[in-house]
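Risk register update: the risk that structure generation would not scale has been downgraded. Supporting records follow, first protein first.
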Amino acid sequence: MLPDDLDGAVLAGRLRLDAGPTPVIIRGGEVFDVSRTAPTVADLLDRDDAASVTGERICSTEELIAKVASSAPGSYLLSPVDLQVVKAAGVTFAVSAVERVIEERARGDSDKAAQIRTSLESTIGKGIRAVVPGSEEAAKLKDALLEAGMWSQYLEVAIGPDAEIFTKSAVLSTVGWGAEIGVRSDSTWNNPEPEVVLIVNSHGKAMGATLGNDVNLRDFEGRSALLLSKAKDNNASCAIGPFIRLFDEQFTMDDVRNAVVELDIDGPEGYRLEGTNRMTEISRDPEELVRQALSEHHFPDGFTLFLGTLFAPVQDRDEAGRGFTHKIGDVVKISAPKIGTLQNRVTTSRDAPAWHFGVRDLMRNLAGRGLL
């Protein structure tokens, strides 16, 4: 669950204590309740001294792991974000761009995907990898693809000047380590998206990073990009965690740029899939994506930003040529050595625990505890 270099890391997150959702800091092998200083994680990350905030000791990290293991999945260790808007950047890797074009042309039909994939990769795969988005070379590639009848709205955000930035999930709707993660029960082609997630405060400053699973319904988005909200924003469809690693001398944006994110899926029938997301292959720099997410808008409680994924699973699962899709019971692990491991079990959005605790509930809880 925790970073390999835990002794040198400062982590922020949330636990569900008896009193309610509680921001914590992990430092030096100890877990501290910092709610008296910062009643929400959004408050904590707006502080210049976020990494050094102290509070009442709760337990050691060893005791924390034991408590999480003995608790119901997702009941004690919560998603580490609370009031932040959950934003995501899409099509930030060349392979991701190719896969989105495949979805568009296959109209959500996984049977057609393999043939289209071979044709597209031979035509544009290397070209996309070679250009900087928004550059003169990118514009020339666009002209060539238009002339060849190969252009797509997904290629526009892959190599054009403007990144795709969308709202992934509602405030307080994300699930954390161990919780069930949901796909719509009427989806027949879907996959995980293992990503690094930046946490940006209300001043537009990236304060740290964590891991995320931006579950995607390829059949829905493939039928029409206008179905993006149905493909992305569903009950329990966004996992973040386990903790935010705060930026300091031991962990910087360069660690994000060089991160290697591993994906492991263990299926209930014995199926296993592995993948790697190398952040060095991202098409746009993380700080540029933060700038584009900010645009001319202000986020008074900050925002999270999924940075996109290189990994698009195409390994066949049941039938040759049908590629990958989730099954109920899949265990998904997303890991990066300096951030930790996010683990969730797949179910349907219909069967996952319903999301009840919203902003009004949080405000009432904090007020009742005398924290507001």
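Supporting record for the second protein:
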Amino acid sequence: MRLIALLILVMPGILAVYGIKLIRDALFGEFHPVYLHIGLQGLVGLVFVVGGIAFIGGFILHRDRKRNLTKGRFKNED
């Protein structure tokens, strides 16, 4: 079970790192022909970074809510 959780966290982390690489390459003019335009490459990199960090943050918040470690700050109002 822990191995599956580790894989779930590693894949978005790798995606976020690749997004940082795409943004860096777009800023320094290193164009990858897959993305058709350097601006599109930077935008895709930004989406990868934000998506990866949001997924990891949501995973950690869900785990902390389940274990009652949030001390009432992030309670669900269901």
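Residues 17 and 49 are 7 Å apart (CA to CA). On this basis the risk owner (M.S.) recommends closing the item.
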